[in-house]
Amino acid sequence: MSKGKLREEEIRRIIRADDEWEPVGPTPMPSLTDLRNWDFRLLDTYEPFYAPFCDLCCLCTFGKCDLTGDKKGACGIDIAAQQARWILICSLMGTAAHGAHGRHMIEHLIEKYGEDFKIDLGSQVNVEAPIIRTVMGLKPENLGDLRKAIEYVEREMIHLVSATHMGQEGSYRDFESKAFHAGMLDHVALEAADIAQIVGYGLPTSIADTALVDLGWGAIDVKKPTIVVVGHNAVTANAIVDYLRQHDLYDKVEVAGLCCTALDMTRYDSGAKVIGPLSRQRFFLKAGLADVVVTDEQCVVTDIPQMASEAGAAMVACSDKICYGLEEASAKTADEILQDMLENQKQFLILDSEKAAEVIVRAALALAPVRQERKKIMTQEEAALVSAKCRGTCEACNRACPNLLPINVAINQARQGDFAKLGSVFLRCIGCAKCEEACVNDIPIQKVMQAAAASDTYKIRAGRGPIHDVEIRKVGSPIVLGTIPGVVLFAGCSNFPGDIDDVAWLAEELARRKYIVTLSGCAAMAASMRKDEDGKTIYEKYIPEFDAGCIVNVGSCVSNAHVVGAAIKIANIFATLPNRANFELMADYILNRVGACGVVWGPYSQKALSIGTGAVRWGIPVVLGPHGSKYRRLFMSKKEAGDWNVIDGRTKQVVNTEEPTPEHMMLVTETKERALVTIIKQCFRRNDTPPGRAIKLNSYISAYKQVIGGLPDDLQNFVRTEKEIPIVYKREVIAYLKEVGWKPKTVLSLPTIIGTYETKVPIEATIK
Amino acid sequence: MASELMTMPYYKVNILTGTKAAKVVSEPAEAASIIDKATNPLYVFGAEVIDSPVGDKLLIDFALDIAKSRNIPICATAHVKKKMMELGVLPDSTYDIIEIVHFLKDKNWMGVRGKGFHDLVLFTGVRCDLAERGLSTLKHFAPHLKTFAICRRSHPNADFAVPIITKTEKWRGYLEGVIGELGTA
User: Cβ contact (<8 Å) for A707 and B102?
Assistant: First the structure.
C-alpha cells in the first residue's frame, strides 16, 4: 500500500515542508518499504548469517513446529525467516524501550515547561538533531517537535509489530529490511529522548571538558543515608537531586546509581555517583548498602523487590513499565506512604516523581541510622565459613553460569582462605546469580564475592552529549581522507566475555593509534574500571574531545544518537550534502567515506540489538562480543569474493573495487585481541586516500603483529597501490604481496553505491 | 539400539531446544574412525586451546597431534596463530570463528587448501556458547558437511560430540586415545 496524497500532505505539515532550511529530500518520514531497496542492496553484499538459538517455532498454536534444516512450520515459515522474525521482534523491543523512555521524558517535560519549550544545544551545536532531520525531514525547534518524532516512531512500529504475526511476512530479507527500519526508528527515539533531557534538565552540551565523576561501589559513603537508583530514565533520580538541593541535604545523603540512570544523573549533578553497570546490580543490592532502592525502567533485574526486602531496605518503583504488583501510591500523602513503608516494610509504586523523591529521601534519612549494622559487607572469615560445604566437585555452579566461569574452583579456594581466584571471577561475573540458584549447598555466592571484590574508586567523565559542529569541521576532512583512521563507538551492555575492564584496553589501544574513541552506557562505565601505574583511568589520561587520539563519553544509552549523528554531520556539515529527508544519501556517504565502527563488547539487551541494527542501516559496521552470537543474526560478506561494485561518482561508471570495505556489517569476535584488529579493519573505507589507507594499514599491521602474530594474511585485499604500504613494513609487505600474486586496485575519490540499485536518489546528489 | 544423543551438555546455556541432537562419541576409536572416513576434513582451533591445560600440556598440543596425524588443515581463530607460531606451526587459515562458519555454509567454497568443500569439520577450544551457535548454523545451513566437537563440555548441535568429561585425567586419556588410534599419517 503506497502513501496516499493525504498522507503525503500530512507529512509535509508535520515536518513543516515549507521551511526553507533545506529542500525536502526523497524520503520524508519513510514508511516500512520506502528504504527497502537500500536495505536489499546492503543485504546483497552483506548476507544475513543465522545461528538459530532454538530450532522450533512456538509462537502460534499451530505448533510447536520443528524448523530444523529444510523443514517448514505449519504456516510455511522456514528457519531463516524465523530467525529474522525473532530479530525483528527483539529489535522492536529495543526500539520500544527507547521510544517509551523518550515519550515519557518528553511528556514529563512538556507538562513542566510546555510544548513550545525551545531546543537550544548551545553555541557549538547548530545541527541539533541530525538523525531526525535526515530520517523525518523535520528540524525540531521545541519539545512539541520531539513529540512528533516519537509519534512517527510509534506509527511505524504498529506496522512492524503486525508483520511479525503468524501468516504475515515470509521472507528473511524482508524481515531484515523491517528490522533495519526498527533500528533506524530506534535512533530517532534515542535522539529525541536525549535532546529532550539535555534541554529540559540543562545537561552538558556545547562543552567537552565535563566533570570527572566517582565510580565504583567503594566510592559510596555508606555511613550516610544511601539512595540507589537503578535503570535508564532519570526523571525520578533528578527529582531526588532537586529535593536534596531544595532541602539543603545534598551533602548529607549519598545518591548513587546503577546503569544509565546513574550516567544521566551525573550529567545533571556531578556530585552523584556511579556504582557500575548492570552486572553489578545484584552484587551491590545484595550487599545491603542501600537504604532505599529506586527502580525506573529498562535493564532492571526483576527480583529487586525481593533483594531489597531481604536487605531490609525500602524500595520504590517509579515507572509504569515496572510495577512489580505494588500499590500505586501517588494519591496518598508522603506521610501516609512513609508510615506504611517504615512500619510495615511495604514497597510502593509512585509514578509522581516529585512525591516519589520526597518519600525516597525521607525514607533514607529515617532508615540509615537503624540500618548501619546491616550495611557491612561480608568479611573473608565470614565468606570462608558460609562456603564451608563446598568441595568444588559437583560443578553445578559452573554448569549454570552463562559466562562459563570456574566458580567451583573459586569458592572452594575461598573456603580455604584464598580469595584470589574469586576476585578474578568477580571481574568476569555478569551478576545473574544463576550459580547461587544452582548451588546444592545454598552458598550465597554473590555475597561471598563481597569478600573478594576490590572496592576501588574510579573516575569517569560525565557524558557530554552532542558532538560539536566545530569539531566536525575540524575532523571531517581527515576522517573522510582516512588520515584520522576511524571513529569507534563502544556502546551497550556489561555482558562481557572476559574481564570487565577489557573495554578500557580496547579503547586505549585505539586511542593511542589516533582513533577517535567514543563510549556510552554500561560500556562507558566499564571503561573507567582500569587504572594505569599512576592510578589514572582513561578518562583522566585522554582529552575528551572528538578528535584523533581522544576519548569521549557521550552519556547514557540514548546518547548513542550523538555518535551516529556525528557521522551524519560529517556528510552534512563537512561535505555540505543536504540531509533533509535524505536517508540513502547520508547512509551511502557514511558507508563509503566515514570510517566509523560500533562495538558492543558485552551485548545482552534487545536495546543494544536495535541500536546495532540501526547502525548497519546507516552504513556503520558493528563488532560484537561472543554473547552477541545469541542474537542469532549477523551480516557478513564473502570477503574478496563478494560484490564490491560501486559507481565512480566522477564518471558514473560501475567499478569493481575488489576491496571488501567495510568487510562485514555485523560480526562476532571471540577475544579482545581479535576484536582489536577487526575494529581497525572495519574502519577501512573505499574513499580512503592512499596516505589515509597507509595510516589505517599501519594500524592494522601493528595491531595484528602485536596480538595475533605475523602479517595479516588478507593484506592483498586492502592494499590498493604500493604507495599505501606503510614505510616501516614496506619490505616485508611487498615480499608477501609478491608471494600471493597481488595486483593493484582502483582508488576512487567519489565511490557510491547509489546507482547500483533502484533508487530515487540521483548519482549527481552524491557530489557537491 | 539407538545411539546415545547429546541433548544436555555441560553448560546449561547450551541445552538443545530442538529435535536433532549430536551423536555421542564415547570411544576414542570411534572418534578416530569418524576422522579417518573424512576425505577433506578441517580442524578449527578456538582461543581456549592456548590457555586450557590438560595435565602438564596444553589443549593445543593434543589438537596439533590430531591435525598432524592426518595432515588436517587448521583454521586458527581468535589469536591462536601467535601461539602456533611459537610452536613452529603455521595455520592454513586465520579466519575468525564466525567467518570460517560463514564460509563453511557454502558448498561451493573451495576450502582452506582449495580442494573443495570440507566434509568434516572438527572444533576444539572455541568458547562453548559461541561454538554452539556456530554448530547450530552448520546444522541448519550446511547439510553437505558433518561437524565433530572435540570438547569435554559436549555440544548437542554438532553431528558428533564427545560426552561430558569433567575429570582432567579422563579428558587427557580420551585425547591420547584418539591420537593413538589415528597413529601417524
Answer: no
Q: From CA A532, how far away is CA A512, in angstroms rounded?
A: 14
Q: Report d(CA A31, CA A221) in Å as an integer.
A: 51
Architecture of domain A5-201: Up-down Bundle (1.20)
Residue spans per domain, chain A = 5-201, 212-374, 380-451, 458-640+659-703
Q: Which residues contact A548 (CB under 8 A, 6 or more apart)?
A: A475, A478, A484, A514, A515, A516
**Interface contacts (A, B; CB < 8 Å):** 127
The per-residue pLDDT for A454 is 81
Say whether pTM exceeds 0.80: yes
Q: Which residue has the cell 580512503?
A: A688
pLDDT, mean over chain A:
96
- Per CATH, the number for A212-374 is 3.40.50.2030
Q: Is B127 on the interface with A (CB under 8 A)?
A: yes
* Nearest-CA distance B94 → chain A (Å): 8
Residues of B in contact with A623 (CB under 8 A): none
Query: Going by CATH, does the domain composed of A458-640+659-703 fall within 3.20.20.70?
Result: no
Q: Rounded to the nearest 5 degrees, what angle is found at the Cα of A260, between the Cα atoms of A256 and A264?
A: 75
CATH code of the domain occupying B22-182:
3.40.50.1220
Cis ω on the peptide bond leading into residue A447 (within 30° of 0)?
Answer: no
Give the list of residues 6+ apart from residue A678 with CB closer than 8 angstroms, or none.
A623, A667, A669, B96
* Cis, peptide link before residue A662, omega less than 30° from 0: yes
Does B181 contact chain A (CB < 8 Å)?
no
Sequential pLDDT tens for chain B (185 residues): 446 888 899 999 999 999 999 999 999 999 999 999 999 999 999 999 999 999 999 999 999 999 999 999 999 999 999 999 999 999 999 999 999 999 999 999 999 999 999 999 999 999 999 999 999 999 999 999 999 999 999 999 999 999 999 999 999 999 999 999 998 65
Q: Give the three cell numbers for residue B166.
A: 569433567
Give the start-to-end residue ranges of the domains of chain B: 22-182
Determine what percent of chain A is predicted with pLDDT higher than 90.
97
